[in-house]
Here is the input.
Amino acid sequence: MRTYVVTGGAGFIGSNYIHYMFKKYGDEIRIINVDKLTYAGNLENLKDVENRENYTFVRADICDAEAINRIFSENDVDRVVHFAAESHVDRSIKDPGVFVKTNVLGTLTMLNAAKLAWENPDGSYKEGKKFLHVSTDEVYGSLSNPEDYFYETTPYDPHSPYSASKASSDFMVKAFMDTYKFPANITNCSNNYGPYQFPEKLIPLMINNALHGRDLPIYGDGKNIRDWLYVEDHCKGIDMVQEKGRLFETYNIGGHNERENIQIVKTIIQTLREELADDDPRKQHVTEDLIKYVADRKGHDRRYAIAPDKIRAEVGWYPETTFEVGIKKTIRWYFDHQEWMEHVTSGNYQKYYEEMYADK
Ligand code: NAD
Ligand code: TDX
Here is the structure.
């Protein structure tokens, strides 16, 4: 039975990945979810797997070398899938320090621990061990020419403290591959959306605000472009890269699904209106009147767009969920899980929201 260490498994993509993997492999695999449970980590995301015998949760900080080494010495770990990170650009602009700590130093701690556990005395590695580092398209910077795309060969040009920290972590993984022949892959993915996303990110924030009749804050002119990928497609891509990709390679994962932010917000309003029953009082306020243009994000990247040619050619992955289908599924999920939204938007998050948007 193959054993996975999944870091950041209580977050948005990590929890979707754990669901995906149990759905795909059932009892053939074992997953150890290592998560510090920051504001973004929520064990409610994993309620339906928590009693499985082949699932274990370990609360640990990826910067804590002793705790991480212990996990490797107590378990024969075959795969690491490393999601844990500080992930929100706006937070990184307010407080870059924790991004460097978790994203750079935490990644180094994971690499050191896996290397220590997997390396043979002659410098080779135990059979079949693999590390996958989950990264972002934001490391490539911003595209200005509409015909350009991010390829694996595009030079790194990060702008925000978040993307700079992810770029540094990618370089550290690359250094381990180049220097120690450490068995790893890097994936750089575009913007994900779907169930369990923390409502500080554009899509769940807009769904939640619209349902409550609150303003929908659009940064700048609303014409920044992101390349949206349904989260389950990303999870499938990660698994396919780890099983079918060439070791030491980077694979870009994205959907050719570019949309301006304002288009996304208008689609959300329109879809919500279709979903709400005519006698639902919320239908009165879920309108485009809620849209409010606010001060732009500092250093706001204009356009991201992935060319997923390499992963398609080498691994056979392609995005299966169109935005039209994915956004409907996503909105329906938030509709059906309003208690989940209430839990994550209470307490600390509320305080954060007020601080973040007070000056906008
Ligand atoms: P998220 O913020 O929803 O979840 C992050 C998880 O990591 C949380 O469960 C949190 O508790 C945990 N964590 C944070 N610091 C930790 C620490 N020091 N030790 C242990 N656990 C810690 O993030 P996400 O959106 O699920 O992103 C997951 C990964 O995917 C990140 O590496 C991110 O850079 C990358 N990524 C995200 C997107 C996206 O659109 N969300 C796109 C491309 C790549
Ligand atoms: O209130 C808002 N208003 C707004 O106009 C928010 C929260 C965002 N935006 C804009 C900023 C971006 O152009 O929407 C776009 C998407 O913003 P986010 O959801 O914050 O995502 P982004 O900054 O693109 O980064 C995301 O995708 C890449 C994830 O948060 C990263 O972790 C991932 O690496």
